[in-house]
Amino acid sequence: LLPCALENQISGENADRIDARVKIIAEGANGPTTPEADAVIAERGIFMIPDFLANAGGVTCSYFEQVQSNMNYYWDKDEVLGKLDVKMTSAFADVSDLAKQEKLFTREAAYVIAVGRVAQACRDRGWV
Predict the structure, then answer these.
(1) pTM of the entire structure?
(2) Beta bridge partners of 24
């Protein structure tokens, strides 16, 4: 199931109507699933790829563009796609692994990783 374009498409009021054949939800929109729906989805064992992971490829490519611009050096399309594949595959594996290890819903695992990385970056920069 791919909820795209609108926020709050899957809510506590309609999550129970998700077809039993749905095994994976990949969020294409920003915030298409409410916290109440998350509880239903997790209870049903549907694998969730949260919005900020599913949509991270565009932001990652924008970062690659910035790096290339700063270096005044440009990678060809295949090199960019290769770098993107490595980053996105690693991010997905990190979220999936933490969710399994800690018995977390994938959105929770993604948040734990994201907050931890931001906190570490703040420490590394001497901000905290």
Answers:
(1) 0.87
(2) 47
